[in-house]
Specification:
CATH class of the largest domain: Alpha Beta
CATH superfamily of the largest domain: NAD(P)-binding Rossmann-like Domain
Strand order of the largest sheet: 3-2-1-4-5-6-11
Radius of gyration: 19 Å
Oligomer: single chain
Distance between the termini: 44 Å
CATH topology of the largest domain: Rossmann fold
Shape: globular
């Protein structure tokens, strides 16, 4: 069984690769564009293919070489806030890369079971009556990132409808865990706390909007859901992937602050506020549960402790000029 994993060196992709190596007998192939430090511990246990998914010829050659039985497409621009600053880059990466991949699969391995990872951001400006969000909730994307992920979602549906390719769409809600980049709220808080503990700056955590509520799940539970959907999801269907429980950003911050002994103040940073923010977003995950039996297993307090401990180790190893 050969598995092709795009975004293998990314946050979720690295955890998925680790899961596949530990829990399956699959021959794991991963696409790497630049860095691979997140999967250094998997050296010799995964097959890496270095290149750019924007290069259609290269993607075609890789798919022809591997002829995967399963493809899990996780590679994407994933910074919602950053998509406001670089909208075209967001569209180019998320749409063009998937188009090249699906075209290559259509040509060389059309029977490959494929997971396309979309996002809760496609639902966008949900209204109170839409909650919890199920898979039939109207699309109202309110960021360039949300538009790009909706294009990915609809492209996957089109390839299923037009070419009968066995594609499943996973609409992932917010996830967190050790190793997450500090473009995301919980990780940004954790990094600042770790730096404060080392005395690198004043004991103040700078934050954006703390009142929003989101559906958070540990990344290790999320990637397990992806693999279950790859095996058991109905082709052509879409599945929300999330806990089904809303948490405020304030709860994330307070939980992290409880994990340190240092008194820390909180200050609003206008630069961290987004042009458009949805007050509450959480999912109905019953379709996923019915298809796979999946349930989240890792408590979010454990996720946040692991995240903070990772930043503590990373910050302590950095040279002084690398520390923010």
């Amino acid at each position: 069984m050969r598995v092709l994993l795009t975004g293998i060196a990314g946050f979720a992709g690295s955890f998925l690769a680790d899961y596949l190596v530990r829990e399956t007998d699959a021959e794991v192939h991963g696409v790497v564009h630049r860095h691979d430090h997140r999967i250094a511990h998997l050296a010799g246990r995964v097959h890496l293919h270095r290149g750019d998914l924007r290069n259609a010829l290269w993607v075609s050659e890789v798919v022809q070489e591997i002829l995967p039985d399963y493809t899990l497409h996780l590679a994407a621009w994933s910074d919602v806030g950053g998509s406001w600053r670089q909208p075209w880059t967001t569209y180019e990466l998320n749409i063009q890369c998937q188009l090249n991949l699906l075209e290559a699969l259509r040509r060389w391995q059309p029977a490959c079971r494929t997971i396309v990872v979309s996002s809760n951001e496609i639902y966008g400006l949900v209204e109170p009556g839409d909650l919890p969000i199920d898979e039939s909730t109207p699309f109202r994307p309110n960021s360039p990132y949300g538009v790009s992920k909706l294009a990915q979602d609809m492209m996957a549906l089109q390839y299923f409808n037009s070419h009968q390719m066995p594609i499943v769409r996973a609409r992932s809600f917010n996830h967190l865990g050790p190793g997450q980049a500090d473009d995301f709220a919980a990780s940004a808080f954790a990094r600042q706390i770790a730096e404060i503990e080392l005395g690198l700056h004043e004991p103040v955590v700078h934050v954006g909007n703390l009142s929003t509520e989101r559906d958070f799940t540990d990344v290790r539970d999320v990637v397990r859901a992806y693999w279950l959907l790859a095996q058991h999801g109905e082709t052509g269907a879409c599945y929300n992937v999330g806990s089904g429980q809303p948490r405020t950003i304030r709860w994330l911050l307070d939980t992290l602050l409880d994990l340190t002994d240092i008194p820390i103040d909180v200050a609003i940073d206008p630069a961290r506020l987004r042009p458009s923010d949805v007050p509450v977003s959480y999912c109905d995950n019953q379709r996923l549960v019915a298809a796979t039996g999946w349930q989240p297993e890792i408590d979010l307090r454990t996720s946040l402790k692991d995240l903070l401990d990772t930043w503590r180790k990373q910050v302590s190893k950095q040279e002084p000029n690398e520390r923010k």
